[in-house]
């Protein structure tokens, strides 16, 4: 059995999983964001709730730039106190159990590579739509990390630059699913501005105000998918995150790509866009796969083989 931990901005989700990638049990707790001591206390309490004699390894999905070999976290995303902390070594030394750690967006990409929508492709891009845009670039069947471990940090791609102020707009902000939902919720006076279900009810019912904001969102996404197609020329682009469960998202992204190409006939790219198989549990599956890669090498067989 493996203990798999997904550290998110709101919750720490954790699960017991077996080598066949089955979730035996899962739960979550509120993520402490105050300081390293509070964070580690919650993490250690979570680990100690389990029978460690039955745990073969601990697999962690974490925000930030991650050196998967050393276990050092850089920057830490929503957790700046994790910068330069070797979370892998701290847990291994405390409990004497093998630990792996990987960036959360790359975990989502690994889940799709292992068991999901890009498992039959050598070259692909996985985009995870959430508060920002997480990314995973897969080349020759492996997640590409880059010399500074920042390959796939799609959120930092600039969308536009103001030539006077030199200020930029960013892919991660302009294509934030969370912000898109909030915009529509505010206009439609939905009490809970994070209520994605209510927002997509308006979108699916073709409400003009909701549809206009959503189409703008999809056009921005389509623009960057085309850009990525020219830079990487992947076989497929997979769209993940909670909103990828909505069929209308893929429909309007494909519409947006065709609209852009119609008005810009020099475009030759024809990106294949699909939905990710995994949504909320993607990071758990990907973290487990990274554990297997770290300890057994790249050629980990699918549990179905």
UniProtKB/TrEMBL annotation:
Domain of life: Bacteria
Keywords: Kinase, Transferase
GO MF, one example: kinase activity
InterPro entries (alphabetical): ATPase_NBD, ROK
Family matches, as Gene3D superfamilies: 3.30.420.40
UniProt family annotation: Belongs to the ROK (NagC/XylR) family.
Name of the protein this chain belongs to: Sugar kinase
């Amino acid at each position: 059995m493996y203990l798999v931990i997904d550290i998110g901005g709101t919750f720490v989700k954790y699960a017991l999983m077996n080598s066949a990638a089955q979730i035996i049990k899962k739960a979550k707790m509120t993520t402490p964001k105050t300081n390293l001591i509070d964070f580690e206390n919650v993490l250690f309490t979570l680990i100690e709730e389990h029978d460690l004699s039955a745990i073969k390894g601990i697999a962690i999905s974490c925000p930030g730039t991650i050196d998967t070999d050393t276990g050092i976290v850089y920057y830490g995303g929503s957790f700046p106190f994790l910068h330069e902390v070797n979370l892998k070594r701290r847990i291994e030394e405390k409990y004497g159990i093998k630990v792996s750690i990987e960036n959360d967006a790359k975990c989502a990409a690994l889940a799709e590579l292992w068991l999901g929508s890009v498992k039959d492709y050598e070259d692909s891009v996985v985009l995870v739509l959430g508060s920002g845009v997480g990314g995973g670039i897969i080349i020759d069947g492996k997640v590409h990390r880059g010399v500074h471990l920042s390959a796939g940090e799609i959120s930092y791609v600039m969308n536009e630059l103001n030539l006077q102020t030199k200020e930029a707009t960013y892919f991660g902000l302009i294509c934030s699913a969370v912000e898109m939902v909030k915009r529509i919720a505010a206009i439609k006076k939905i009490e809970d501005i994070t209520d994605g279900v209510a927002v997509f009810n308006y979108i699916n019912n073709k409400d003009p105000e909701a549809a206009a904001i959503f189409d703008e969102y999809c056009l921005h996404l389509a623009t960057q998918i085309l850009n990525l197609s020219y830079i990487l020329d992947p076989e497929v682009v997979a769209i993940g995150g909670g909103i990828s469960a909505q069929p209308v998202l893929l429909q309007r992204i494909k519409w947006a790509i065709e609209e852009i190409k119609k008005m810009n006939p020099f475009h030759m790219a024809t990106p294949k866009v699909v939905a990710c198989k995994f949504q909320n549990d993607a990071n758990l599956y990907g973290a487990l796969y990274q554990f297997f890669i770290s300890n057994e090498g790249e050629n980990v067989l699918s549990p179905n083989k």
